[in-house]
Automatic annotation (TrEMBL):
Provenance organism: Noviherbaspirillum galbum
InterPro entries reported for this sequence: KR_dom, NAD(P)-bd_dom_sf, Sc_DH/Rdtase_CS, SDR_fam
Keywords: NADP, Oxidoreductase
Membrane-spanning intervals of the chain: none
Keyword presence, NADP: yes
PROSITE patterns xrefs: ADH_SHORT (PS00061)
Name of the protein: 3-oxoacyl-[acyl-carrier-protein] reductase FabG
Annotated family: Belongs to the short-chain dehydrogenases/reductases (SDR) family.
Gene3D superfamilies: NAD(P)-binding Rossmann-like Domain
Lineage: Bacteria, Pseudomonadati, Pseudomonadota, Betaproteobacteria, Burkholderiales
Pfam families the record matches: adh_short_C2
Domain Ketoreductase residue range list: 3-188
Amino acid sequence: MKKVMIVTGGSRGIGAATARLAAKAGYAVCISYVNSEAAAAEIVREMTAAGAEAIAFQADVSVEADVTRLFEHVDRTLGPVTALVNNAGMLETQMRVDQMDAARLSRVFNVNVIGSFLCAREAVRRMSTRHGGQGGAIVNVSSIASRLGSPNEYVDYAAAKGAVDTFTTGLAKEVAPEGIRVNAVRPGVIYTDIHASGGEPGRVDRVKASVPMLRGGQPEEVAQAILWLLSDEASYTTGTFLDVTGGR
Ligand code: NAP
C-alpha cells in the first residue's frame, strides 16, 4: 500500500520537521498551511530534492470546505491518505481567563479542536475498513499544556488541548476495529514560532530552567515521536500519549 501522509500546518515548526522526516522515510507527503505559501514551497522543494513525492495545499483546518478540498486534492494527486498528522494549532496573546472574550475562545477552539475533528473525519472516511479503506494511522499533536493548564498564559489553549486528548482516547476506541490507530504526542516547550504568537518569542529560554532536562526541545525531536507512532513498529499502540517534554 502506498504510504501517503497529510501534515496539517506543515509550513513551519513541528509540522515542517515531521514532513521532512516523513519524506525521508518513504511517504508521499502533503503539507497544508494558511498563510506561509513561500515557506511551504521551500519545504516541498526540500522533500522533492530528497527524492519524495511532495505537495503543499492552502487550507484553514477550521473551515470545513477547506478541509474537504484538502483531502480531495490529495486523493487526486497522491492517492488516499494513510497517515494523518493533526498538527495545525495556534495560541493567542498571553492573558488571564478574566480578560478573554468569546471571539478569542472561538478561534482557539475552532482551530485546535474542531480542526482536528474535521481532518480526522476525512481521514477515517478514507482509511476505515468500514468505508472500504485499508486502514491507517492518525497522530494528534496535543500539548503537555493539557495537563499543566497554562495559568496566566493561555488556559483556553490548554483546555483545547485537553479536548484533543479526550478526542484521541474516544476516536482511538471508535475506529480500532476498523484498522485505524489514533495516538497523540504532547510536546513540552519546543523552539518554534508559536511562542511569538503568544507575545513572548523568548519563552522557551525563560522556562527551560524548570524543565528537568534543563533545555527546550527541537521540532525534530517531536517529529521522531510522531513518525514512530505512525510506523508499523507501533502496530499494537493506540489511544496512547507520548509526552515529549524533557521530563516536564
Ligand atoms: P508554529 O511554528 O506556530 O507553526 C504552526 C503551523 O500551523 C504553521 O504551519 C501554520 O501555518 C499552521 N496553522 C496555524 N493555524 C492554522 C489553521 N487554522 N489551519 C491550518 N494550518 C494552520 O507552531 P508549532 O510550535 O510548530 O506547533 C505545531 C503544533 O504543536 C501545534 O498543534 C501546537 O499547539 C503544538 N505544540 C507546540 C509546542 C511548542 O512549544 N512549540 C508545545 C506543545 C504543543 P502558516 O505557516 O501558514 O501560518
